[in-house]
Backbone:
């Protein structure tokens, strides 16, 4: 595939557009998307126009928001219409969400009033809600149909539905009454009635549920699709597993970013402008820098200790880094366990007890290594060595406790646990480690 | 559901086992799993035995390895056999992988020789390979069958296959020739031949491919299942999307753990012993502690500067934390972008250029805030203020460059980019920040 792709890009350089059009019939959608994203901005529209009609719409939905905007603003109204007409409803909504208002207007100009209303309703679902990722292209059956009638209906509408593998049984007022899998339909006798084989005890989500909770249900149950209902239990759409894979990746990416003290964004890195990246990063950096003033005050407060023994300074970075690392391990473990649903607030005492045990074991090991390396490798005397070693010991245990408890407390008060990650934990642990260090030093050095 | 669950747990306390058995008919598998995991260890086997026969096997596969071991070692051979018989092949392999060798032997005792051979073959696929997550329960068709014959075949075997929604067309020697979706089968005329509707250009993976790469293909293509072939392009199994969701979560968890300087483990937190947790954490903590010695030597080397101006010490924690945070942001961004396939080594120059721009913007902002807060809030004189501010400025930019370049370089030499995360980056940035700080201090303070 790599070869074909390079060949096509060479043909593009040589402006052999007809040959490209031929060659692209052999290329699948993800590779066409890759090729467009490798091209210079000004070449992308031209290349997009060379893509076979059958694949163009699908390629379009897979492009990044930036590239969709480039293409929509360059191609003609009928061309846009052609793409929009073949898109599944949820992909259409995704595209419209990425475009600025004037382009949305341009696209919606030619749709029917009822479709426009429906689209506007979907555009109003909160970002990250089940409503915002659902599609309306499902197979609806009614309870008095037979398997034969159902299969005939699927044969008729099947190609325009996003999934036909789970069918939804609804009442005349669209209330969700049950589900039937295509597996059941093709393995049952033809005269059986839907109401006799449908599963009535259906797991569903509601339009306003958070997509993260929806993803958790998919994981727990191993579903391919899940119905979405409104307040009156009417079926408003379905969520399919392919969209859930994206949700799971997005939510992890968001956690990674928050845990590294950034404002989360789901725009791919290479397409985010450096201004935007800087904006997402500077807020937390400044906040953390200012809270680090506290450590400065602590040090100033113990100026006399430092004056008396400057060698103490040389161990500050090691103590800070080790405390930060120990806390980071605990908080990462707990934040991730909360995210995948393995740990809840009610486990707080269990978690803290466990981290205390872990902390003691790790602290004993590290304090021993540290004592020996100072003893043999640095010019510090025994009192200094013991000061450093004792501080290290207590700091490691404290870091484990803070690192594990804070994410759970954040979760309890409905904050995102991911905030309680390395950067914030480090700042807290630093303050304690330094205070402890100087207090112990005062005692040990008899100041 | 919460109510029902609490009620059942109360019935359990009251030893009303018959009532529980009744009540459990209303409970779905994920909730039964939750209940078992809430019980005390000694109660789990008893509770498991109360679960309706229809659900027992499914509940069993969803339990953690530890709980599976508890149950297998307590129940009788016929009971084990009953569970194993209804499991899908991939679930059976998952269970066997979790059990110690003597229990595996106990289970395999009563299986046929051919199945035992197959199971042994599967147990030998490397952990995290496509082979280790695939199943053999797929629907196989041959190219000369008609749609009618195919549907009849599916009707017959459908209930014992993990998915029937994609069917695999194979030659008499099991070479993969194409795929047909059930959607195509139910929307086509009955007399059409499979070879006329099958898709021959099939995306497949090979048995030894890494599960992370398989997951990426699922995401790019939106598949429900993907065929796995051996070196001779013979179909050895299929991977289904529900297993891929687990793979994606596992791989993210692994990255979180590596990035926080831990040896990764996929055992749930609450079930990992504190000894094991301590073991996973101490190695990197000790390595990082020892490398932090370098910063100690740097400080000792500039002892004269510190003697001359002890106030410099009070800014060390802030400079170190800020450098670490700035580097952490960049490395997290790049490690995650590599993991989801958005950034590759060939983007190195683009990435570094972008991070340089981000670094300059962020550094200007932070240096300004820092200058003002020292000027107005601390007793340091202008020379010290400028020393701190200049060090901060350069450190932030350097941290962004190191944080973004190292994960890409690690990726290039086939190391896991996640190693180049906060802990290691912090150690490197610390060493630079301190050296820079003292060199600038020497100049500014005329030492």
Residues:
């Amino acid at each position: 595939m790599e070869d074909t792709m390079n060949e096509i890009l060479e043909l593009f350089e040589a402006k052999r557009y007809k040959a490209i059009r031929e060659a692209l019939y052999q290329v699948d959608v993800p590779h066409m998307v890759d090729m467009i994203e490798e091209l210079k901005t000004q070449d992308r529209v031209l290349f997009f126009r060379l893509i076979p009609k059958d694949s163009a719409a699908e390629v379009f939905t897979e492009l990044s928001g930036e590239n969709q905007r480039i293409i929509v603003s360059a191609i003609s109204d009928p061309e846009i219409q052609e793409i929009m007409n073949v898109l599944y409803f949820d992909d259409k909504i995704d595209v419209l969400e990425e475009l600025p208002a004037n382009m949305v207007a341009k696209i919606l100009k030619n749709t029917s009033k009822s479709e426009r209303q429906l689209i506007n309703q979907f555009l109003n679902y909160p970002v990250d809600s089940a409503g915002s990722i659902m599609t309306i292209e499902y197979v609806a059956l009614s309870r008095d149909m037979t398997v034969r009638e159902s299969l005939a209906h699927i044969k008729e509408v099947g190609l325009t539905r996003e999934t036909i593998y789970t069918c939804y049984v609804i009442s005349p007022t669209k209330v969700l009454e049950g589900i039937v899998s295509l597996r059941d339909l093709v393995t049952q006798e033809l005269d059986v009635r839907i109401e006799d084989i449908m599963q009535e005890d259906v797991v569903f989500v509601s339009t306003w549920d958070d997509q993260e909770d929806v993803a958790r249900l998919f994981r727990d149950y191993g579903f391919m699709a899940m119905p979405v209902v409104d307040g009156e239990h009417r079926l408003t759409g379905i969520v399919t597993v392919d969209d859930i894979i994206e949700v799971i990746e997005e939510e992890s990416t968001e956690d990674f970013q928050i845990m590294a003290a950034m404002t989360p964004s789901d725009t791919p890195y290479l397409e985010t402008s450096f201004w935007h990246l800087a904006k997402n990063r500077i807020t937390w950096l400044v906040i953390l820098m200012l809270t680090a003033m506290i450590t400065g005050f602590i040090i100033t407060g113990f100026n006399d200790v430092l004056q008396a023994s400057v060698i103490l300074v040389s161990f500050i970075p090691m103590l800070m880094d080790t405390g930060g690392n120990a806390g980071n391990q605990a908080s990462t473990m707990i934040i991730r366990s909360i995210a995948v649903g393995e740990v809840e607030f009610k486990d707080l005492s269990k978690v803290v007890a466990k981290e205390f045990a872990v902390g003691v074991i790790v602290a004993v090991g590290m304090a021993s290594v540290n004592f020996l390396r100072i003893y043999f490798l640095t010019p510090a005397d025994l009192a200094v060595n013991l000061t450093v070693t004792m501080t290290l010991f207590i700091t490691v245990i404290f870091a484990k406790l803070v690192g594990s408890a804070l994410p759970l407390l954040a979760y309890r008060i409905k904050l995102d646990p991911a905030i309680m990650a390395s950067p914030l934990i480090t700042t807290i642990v630093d303050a304690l480690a330094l205070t402890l260090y100087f207090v112990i030093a005062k005692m040990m050095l008899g100041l």
In short: The two ends of chain A are 73 Å apart (CA to CA). The mean pLDDT of chain A is 88.
